[in-house]
Structures are given as structure tokens and as C-alpha cells.
Specification:
By secondary structure, the chain is an alpha+beta fold. Helices cover 58% and strands 9% of the residues. Among the domains are: 144 residues, no CATH class; 75 residues, 2-Layer Sandwich (Alpha-Beta Plaits), CATH 3.30.70.2750. It contains 22 helices and 14 strands. The strands form 5 sheets. Strands 2, 3, 8, 9 and 10 form a 5-stranded antiparallel beta sheet that branches. It starts with a strand and ends in an 8-residue tail after the last strand.
Length: 674
């Protein structure tokens, strides 16, 4: 349970060593580099935006090339591979790739050009297919589509919005033009919606026939060509085959670069690293021959860092304690039991200046509360098995994901523990299966009690857990105040509430009505209850007369005291919030029992067994998924609202060291090796 002490580090070195020093710091990854303010009369800063843009562009080119390769030559990876941390490579491999930067980037650009060429060809293929589709309806036409006729004839090539054949069209025109016979026609093609027609007439009858065709809905073709449609189709189909072959060859060329995948991955990471480095360069101070950097480093690494750098470079390095004005970054350090819940704390807020790290205390309650809410031994064993398998199978996992899996592993252990205490194993599955299919009821006995049978006892226990949780939060506030030698604040702001809330609880436990309602098997004596009431009175007076102690006006102090005393309703609300432990625990058990009961509705025959297995698998899968999410959400809420609300402000800034933030590979250098 600790926030690592930080040191401020200042480094001054020759400008010619800047590249090597920064790359070394980037590989070490333990120094957060600050953006320095500077005196323009002595120092300069370098605008690296253009260079960073170049590196970011090259990184995007490499990543785009990888996406194209993945499309045509998918990499054989399993689902969990995405969870793994970047592969570590040696400096020898790093420099091997580094010597081939131009060659690899040429390959990446060629892949993108080939892909662009394929897209262009596919666009043309789509256009040609559209042409073929439009021309196919005119393939029986033996003259060009833009044929208008001869010197003495006029041709009309178009469509009519009716399903007609030669005879029906001729009869239709005969009715509309009974005195006109100077024309000939042919229906070239037809479908349900329209007919494709060719009409040839004498030039003197052209106007009359065209007007008649227009009344029938005649329309010129949407696409026309100066070639005979059949000939045009053959021509463009040949062109289509050529384009498809060219596209296929481009695809084969892209596939031939599959062995370059790892090198291109390195290029993506390499240019990301260079972009990150030049972002840092923009924060440094420069003169003609030297540069300066400043930042933060965990105190425990300071001496090792100093020795490591001095043994390799001609530099001046200085470590100082951060000043009050410095915004010191936060690094948490906890043991293997507590560190998995650091991510939960970070999602709320890191400790602010002077605050303690509550991770260790929070971890105990987190696992405890999570297990109570899920509280089924079988579900807990499943969680333990899944998380344990992944952690053992995939050791090179991303740090954040590894912590999350460890957290759920411990939550699974807690769930198993509470499940056996409450006698729940897939709900009452053991009893249901043994009774239905073997006619010999076997009951898994609860090691403590069964919440479904004794809900008020579970409610009383939940309130007790909540009171302990809240009082622990108050104790942490008391610790911080005493540590800072604010003894009066400790008495007025913490001890007073211990007296008031604790005294009231003791008094209520001496009241028969309360203990009977909560199904408690003990009751405190009236004498102890009166002592509790006396302490509650002392706490009330302390809160009433000290809450507004910063005000000089007695009347204002009294009003603020009354308002502070109103805070007792907040404590009551907080304690009642822990009834969710009962609610979620019962929900898990009741839903499990419902699914078990549904599965036995078909009896104990073969059909009943199949139905039971289906309902069992589907039902319990849904139940564990829903209640796992519910336990996670509500455990977080009890930490963030009821627990942190008593002592924790947060507001700390996460330590952000300069390191190679890469996706595929990482090149590290451990200062502990020296």
C-alpha cells in the first residue's frame, strides 16, 4: 500500500549524444520527461512537428500495408493473441531491421500501390459488368445502337413499358395508325416490365410514328454505342477478362510479400518510436552544443539510472526532491494480492498529493464483496479455472489485462468460498439432479446458512459488512489526519462520527424489536445500549458545535453544525446501500434454482435428460454472465461511493514515462542488468 516516492531528474549533455541518450531512456522506460519553460536569451526549443508528421505518415503507410496483407494473406493467430504484449526483440534484431528501413518502406509502398491498382481495376470491372448488363438486352440488334436510319428511312431504337411481342406491338400500332403501313418493327427482347424494340419506317411517316410511340411510353436507351451490341459485348468481355487477370496478378504479387510481414510490423513500431522521440525533443532545451532535459523518476531507480547513464555517456545528472509547485506523477506499488485492483482505483482517480494509496485495503473488501454478490461455488470455480488457464497459457500478456484476470481470479476464489458457506453449487443443482434422475436426494449443506431460507439474517450480515467497510474508510481518514498532526480535525471530523454512528448501532442492538426484525440470535443488555446512546450523544454534540468551527459568527457555526448533523442521513443511506449484497446474492441463487426447476419439467426420461442439459447449459451461462457483470458494477459502486466517499479525494496524475509505446515489438534495456 504505497505511492512510490519520486525524484526530479535534470540532465545536461552534449548535443551530439542526444540521439543515443534519448533512445536509451526510451528503452529503459522509467523517466517521465517534462516540457521545460525556458529563457529565450540562452536556450532554444526545436519545432519537431514536421518531422513527427513524416514519421506518423510512414507509420500509417506500414500499418495500411499490414492491413492489406492481412486481407489477402491472413495471419494465423488465435483469439487470445490480441491480448499478448508486444514481442521482445534483441538490440541485434533491432539494428538488423534498422539497416533495411528504405527497402522495407519500399515494399510497404508497393503493397499499397498494388492494392490501389486492384481497386481501380475492380472499379473498371464493375463498370464493364454494368455495360454488359445494359447491352445484354440489345444483343439481338444487328445494327449499332445509335443507328438513326438511312436517307429514306428513320430508325427508332428504344424501350416500351409493356411486355410485348412482335404481333401484339404490330396490332397496337395498327389500331393507333390504321392508315399507315410504311414501317416495320421487331421486339428484340422483353421482360415483365418492358420491351426492347426496333422500329424502321419511311422518313415521311417518321414524325407520326414517333409521336405514336411516345404516347405508348417509348424511351431511348440509357446507354448507347456506335457498335453492334453483340460485337461490343464480345469486345468488353475480352477487356473484362484482361482486367481480372491483371487484378489476379496484382493479388499474387501482394501475397508474395507475406514473408515481409514482420519487417513491416517493425517499420510501424519504429516510426511510432521516432515520432515519440521527436515529441520529447520538442520539450528539451538546446544551445549550440548541449541540450537539457528534466523530468521525474521513481526514487528507487534514481541511483541505478545515474550509474547506468554515467557509465555510457559524458553527461551531468542531478536528482532533487520535487517542490510544492511541482505536479508530481503517481506510481502505485502493491503486492501480488493487491495490485490487480489498481486498475479499479485508476478508473476512479489516483491518489492526490499527500494521500495514501488505499489499494491494499480496497483489495480485501473488493474480493470479499464480489464473492458475496455472486456467491455460487460452481460459478467461482469456473471463473478460477478460466482465468487461471489464460494466465498460465499466455504469460506474455499485456500488463493491464494480466491484472484484470488476476483480479477476477481472486474474485472467483472468494465466490467459491461464499458459495460453499451458503450451500450454492449451480444453485440447488446437486439436489435437483439426484432427486430427479436418481431418486436419491443429495443436499449440499451450507457451511454457514442458506440466504434464500434466512434472508433477514443475510440482510443483517450485509449491514454489518457495510458498517465495517464505512468505518474502515473513516479510519483511513483518521490515519491521514493523525499523520499530518491534525489532531483536532481527527477528533471533530472522524471520532465524532464513530461515537454517533457506533453508539446508535450499539443502542439498536439492545432493542428487542430491531434484533427480532433482523433475525439476530443475540441482544445486547440495556446497560450497554445506554452506554452506546451516551456515546451517540457525545458524538452529536461534537458534530453540532465543531462542524462550523471555521466561522467566527456563533449563529453561523450553530447552523453549520445542524447541517453537519444532517449528514447522519447520508451514513444511514450508505449502510442501506449494502442491502445490494443480499439482493445480488439472492438473485444469483434464485435464478439458478429457477433454471434447474425448468430443466426437470420433462421428467427423468431420455427427453427429460436432454432438455435438462440444454436448459442447464444455456440458463447457467446466462446467469453467470449477467450476475458476473452485476457483481463487478456494484462492487465498484460500493468502493467508489460508500468507501472512497469517507476519506479519498484523488486527483493524482498517472506517471507517464518516456518509453517505446509500440504495438508489435519492444526493445527494452533493464538498468538492473548492470
Amino acid at each position: 500500500m504505497a505511492v512510490l516516492a519520486m525524484k526530479k531528474v535534470n540532465i545536461c549533455a552534449l548535443k551530439k549524444d542526444r540521439k543515443s541518450i534519448l533512445e536509451t531512456l526510451q528503452r529503459i522506460g522509467i523517466v517521465e520527461i517534462a516540457d521545460l519553460e525556458f529563457d529565450q536569451d540562452f536556450f532554444d526549443k526545436i519545432d519537431t512537428m514536421n518531422m513527427r508528421s513524416v514519421f506518423e505518415k510512414n507509420s500509417l503507410i506500414a500499418k495500411e500495408a499490414l492491413e492489406i496483407l492481412e486481407k489477402y494473406v491472413p495471419e494465423e493467430i488465435n483469439f487470445l493473441s490480441s491480448m499478448l504484449a508486444p514481442k521482445e526483440i534483441s538490440k541485434k534484431e533491432y539494428y538488423f531491421f534498422l539497416n533495411k528501413v528504405e527497402e522495407i518502406m519500399h515494399v510497404a509502398n508497393e503493397i499499397i500501390d498494388l492494392y490501389s491498382s486492384i481497386n481501380d481495376k475492380q472499379t473498371k470491372i464493375a463498370q464493364i459488368n454494368k455495360q454488359v448488363e445494359m447491352l445484354s438486352d440489345w444483343k439481338n440488334l444487328d445494327v449499332p445502337m445509335n443507328f438513326n436510319g438511312t436517307k429514306k428511312t428513320k430508325a427508332f431504337i428504344g424501350t416500351l413499358p409493356q411486355n410485348l411481342d412482335d404481333l401484339s406491338l404490330r396490332e397496337l400500332l395498327s389500331e393507333l395508325l390504321p392508315d399507315e403501313d410504311r414501317y416495320d418493327l421487331k421486339v428484340l427482347n422483353k421482360n415483365d416490365d418492358q420491351s426492347f424494340v426496333f422500329v424502321l419506317c419511311h422518313v415521311y411517316a417518321a414524325e407520326k410514328i414517333f409521336e405514336t410511340l411516345r404516347t405508348l411510353g417509348f424511351a431511348w436507351p440509357a446507354y448507347s454505342t456506335d457498335e453492334i451490341p453483340g460485337v461490343k459485348i464480345d469486345s468488353i468481355l475480352k477487356q473484362l477478362d484482361e482486367l481480372k487477370e491483371q487484378a489476379r496478378l496484382d493479388e499474387e504479387k501482394i501475397k508474395s510479400f507475406k514473408d515481409q510481414r514482420n519487417a513491416i510490423k517493425f517499420m510501424a513500431d519504429y516510426h511510432d518510436m521516432r515520432s515519440q522521440k521527436y515529441e520529447v525533443i520538442s520539450k528539451l532545451l538546446h544551445t549550440k552544443n548541449v541540450f537539457m532535459l528534466s523530468g521525474f523518476v521513481p526514487q528507487k531507480y534514481a541511483k541505478k539510472l545515474e550509474h547506468f547513464l554515467l557509465s555510457r555517456f559524458n553527461i551531468a545528472i542531478e536528482f532533487t526532491d520535487p517542490s510544492e509547485e511541482d505536479e508530481v506523477p503517481v506510481v502505485l506499488q502493491n503486492n501480488g494480492f493487491s495490485s490487480p485492483v489498481e486498475g479499479v482505483l485508476e478508473s476512479y482517480s489516483l491518489p492526490g498529493k499527500g494521500e495514501i494509496d488505499p489499494t491494499s485495503v480496497m483489495a480485501i473488501f473488493y474480493y470479499f464483496l464480489f464473492g458475496m454478490m455472486l456467491s455460487d461455488a460452481a460459478y467461482g470455480l469456473i471463473i478460477v479455472a478460466v482465468c487461471g488457464f489464460i494466465l498460465i497459457k499466455y504469460k506474455n500478456m499485456k500488463a493491464g489485462l494480466k491484472k484484470a484476470l488476476k483480479m477476477f481470479l481472486y474474485c472467483g476464489i472468494s465466490t467459491t468460498f461464499w458459495g460453499f458457506l451458503f450451500g450454492s453449487f449451480f444453485g440447488d443443482a446437486i439436489e435437483v439432479v439426484s432427486t430427479t434422475f436418481f431418486n436419491k436426494p443429495i443436499v449440499l449443506p451450507a457451511l454457514w446458512f442458506t440466504p434464500i431460507n434466512e434472508p433477514m439474517r443475510m440482510l443483517a450480515f450485509s449491514f454489518g459488512v457495510g458498517l465495517l467497510h464505512i468505518f474502515t474508510g473513516l479510519f483511513l481518514q483518521l490515519y491521514e489526519l493523525v499523520r499530518d498532526k491534525r489532531f483536532r480535525d481527527a477528533l471533530y471530523d472522524v471520532v465524532s462520527w464513530y461515537f454517533l454512528i457506533g453508539g446508535l448501532v450499539v443502542y439498536m442492538l439492545s432493542a428487542p424489536m430491531i434484533t427480532e426484525m433482523l433475525a439476530m440470535n443475540f441482544i445486547l443488555s440495556k446497560f450497554i445500549g445506554n452506554i452506546g446512546l451516551a456515546f451517540a450523544g457525545i458524538g452529536t454534540l461534537l458534530i453540532l458545535f465543531t462542524t462550523g468551527r471555521e466561522s467566527k459568527n456563533p449563529f453561523k457555526r450553530f447552523l453549520k453544525g445542524l447541517y453537519g448533523l444532517y449528514g447522519v442521513t447520508g451514513y444511514l443511506s450508505d449502510i442501506l446501500s449494502y442491502s445490494r449484497l443480499l439482493a445480488l446474492g439472492l438473485a444469483t441463487g434464485v435464478i439458478a434454482q429457477v433454471f434447474n426447476k425448468m430443466g426437470t419439467m420433462a421428467g427423468n426420461g431420455p427427453v427429460g435428460l436432454i432438455l435438462f442439459l440444454i436448459v442447464f447449459l444455456v440458463g447457467h451461462t446466462m446467469n453467470i454472465a449477467i450476475n458476473l457483470l452485476g457483481a463487478y458494477v456494484h462492487t465498484n459502486r460500493l468502493q467508489f461511493v460508500e468507501f472512497f466517499g469517507k476519506f479519498y479525494q484523488g486527483g493524482g496524475r498517472k506517471f507517464s514515462p518516456f518509453f517505446a509505446n509500440t504495438k508489435y515489438y519492444r526493445v527494452t534495456e533493464d538498468i538492473c542488468d548492470d
